Amino acid sequence: METARPRPQLVRESFIDLDGEWGFAHDDADRGRSERWHDGRELPDRIRVPFPPESPASGIGETGFHPVVWYRRVLTAGDLDAAGHTADRRAVLHFGAVDHRATVWVDGQVVGTHEGGHTPFAFDITDALAPSGGTHTIVVRAEDDPHDLAQPRGKQDWHEDPHAIWYHRTTGIWQTVWLESVSPQHVTALTWTSDLTAGTVTAEVALSRRADSVVHVRIAHEGRPLGTASVTAGDTSTTLTFPLAGQANGQHYEHLLWRPENPVLLDAWVQVETAGFETDAVASYLGLRSVGWSEGALLLNERPVTLRSVLSQGYWPESHLTAPSADALRREAELIAALGFNSVRVHQKIEDERFLYWADRLGLLVWGEMPATYTFSAESVRRTTAEWTEAVLRDRSHPSIITWVPLNESWGVQHIASRGDQRAFAEGLYQLTKALDPTRPVISNDGWELGTSDLWTVHDYEWDGRVLAERYDVDETRLREYIGGIGPAGRRIRLEGTADAGQPIMLTEFGGVKWAADAGPANSWGYSEASSPEDYQQKLSEILGAVQSGVRDRHGRQGGLAGWCWTQLTDTMQEQNGLLTEAREPKIPIETLRALILGMPLDA
């Protein structure tokens, strides 16, 4: 079975993953630094990386308050050989994510620090590899204060036990650790954008050092060359824009466009030459597509698209925020598509990039969302801004991502309607996101109290289909009047002074019907509850039907809704309101669920 690489849009063969058994220790007294644990001493416990220590899969399974943890792994000569490392190359150590603040030592020498629990980082460890008989010691200290509400945490609970809509914390390493061997002059980042009207592609290539290098880019589809370009780069970054064969042909160019029903991906290669020698070669891919909005419709490749989306927490009972395996990420994307959804909102989580790879491959539209803080301060502003910037820069080349969500339900900006500083922060995040990526719509504060925003979005957990129909199965004029007032949560949908310029309107959280064959956790709940599988199906039918009737058709007529997002994909701990159980089993036949989601009649 094909498995995506840890960084699927910048692939080299010269790497190995370092997941598996590491030494581990809690450091509740925070004495590890003074006792010099970073010098490489043995740690008392063993943990299976990359699973967080709160999860059963880690082998630790300790969910209490532990603000500091340590990891240790011996790096062998065989590891370096497997990564293709030689004396004239550089060894780069990558971390997919470490929550929240990480310091990394190699052979007792600090190689770097990183703050931000949901985004990747890497350190060149070559100069720290002390002569040591062929083995070296990697030590990681992670600090994750469970009571620090200014820390972006998403759905991680600050109480000792999960409550309401929050789950067990994720401390320390929770995404893949891997080692890569590179030339001193190599590609460090690669971004793809396309201009459909001009038939061109732009590659932004970041390099490790300033040197006179020639960068070559080549793009093909199924072996057919589409375009090449070369440029001399005298700095640490360069940009190449070039036409693709056939994309200027108005009768033909749509054949290569990426869209859910035909997710065409183009193969790409980037080569770097320095002083006449090849110093790097990476494989990548891209999708040609545009996202925008006009006259109340969301546009994909300048054509209206209606979103049938599902909210996913990206959480597994055995491994928490970490997927149980790389294949589980593929299976998750496949399940979403099999259920009839064309879109997924990964909620309060910056998902493993390998999930985005499968979304790209399967044609699944994705909402990129920032995990929230739960207080407003200068520190929460700084941390959110820094981490969100890293997230957008990491993921902006994925064609599957169609919108950005920096804030949700005023979390972290609780008084946005009355405090100018909080509103200014939300407006600033919108503009920052547009500066980093002007190619996608941005939802400024999903659910309610929206300021400047490219979509108007509403959260509504009303369970009575008749009430939902009265709100949403109406013409666009009435729906726009509705979003100008107080929403179902008792908050304004749009902030005062925010003008409606015809942005698409979506119901981006609704449903949440609980049905569980057994009692589940003692504090299990849903926004409404079914009494049997038959009752569950009936409630889904009524709620979905009322909302689907309010959706405009593909010609832009009838209802005013441009799409919707059902809560939620799977049961998640005490939230027993998934379409699937925690084990990813459908609660009623998957064919029935698919028919309901697609708005098709059920077989008699």
Helices and strands in order:
Blueprint: E1 15-17, E2 20-26, E3 45-49, E4 68-76, H1 77-82, E5 90-95, E6 98-99, E7 101-106, E8 109-115, E9 121-124, E10 135-143, E11 172-173, E12 177-182, E13 187-195, E14 200-207, E15 213-221, E16 224-233, E17 237-243, E18 258-259, E19 262-263, E20 266-274, E21 277-286, E22 291-294, E23 297-300, E24 303-304, E25 307-312, H2 326-338, E26 343-346, H3 353-362, E27 365-369, H4 378-395, E28 401-405, H5 420-436, E29 456-459, H6 465-472, H7 476-483, E30 505-511, E31 513-514, E32 528-529, H8 533-548, E33 561-567, H9 590-598
Parallel strand pairs: 25-26, 25-33, 26-27, 27-28, 29-30, 30-33, 31-32
Antiparallel strand pairs: 1-12, 2-3, 2-4, 4-10, 5-9, 5-12, 6-11, 7-8, 7-10, 13-14, 14-17, 15-16, 15-20, 18-19, 20-21, 22-23, 23-24
Helix pairs in contact: 2-3, 4-5, 6-8, 8-9
What do you see in this structure?
This protein has 604 residues and is α+β, with helices and mostly antiparallel strands. The protein is built from 9 helices and 33 strands. The strands form 9 sheets. A 7-stranded parallel sheet has the order 28-27-26-25-33-30-29. Helix 2 (326-338) packs parallel to helix 3 (353-362), helix 4 packs parallel to helix 5 and helix 8 (533-548) packs parallel to helix 9. The protein is globular.
User: What is the average per-residue confidence, as pLDDT, rounded to a whole number?
Assistant: 95
Tally of strands: 33
The helix content, as a percent range, equals 10-25%
Terminal Cα separation, in Å? 38 Å
Mass-distribution shape: globular
If helices are DSSP runs of H or I spanning 4 or more residues, what is the number of helices?
9
Strand % is: 25-35%
Ranges with pLDDT <50 over ≥5 residues?
none
Radius of gyration: 25 Å
**Pairing-aware structural class of the strands and helices?**
alpha+beta
The biggest beta sheet reads: 7 strands, parallel
Strand order of the largest sheet: 28-27-26-25-33-30-29
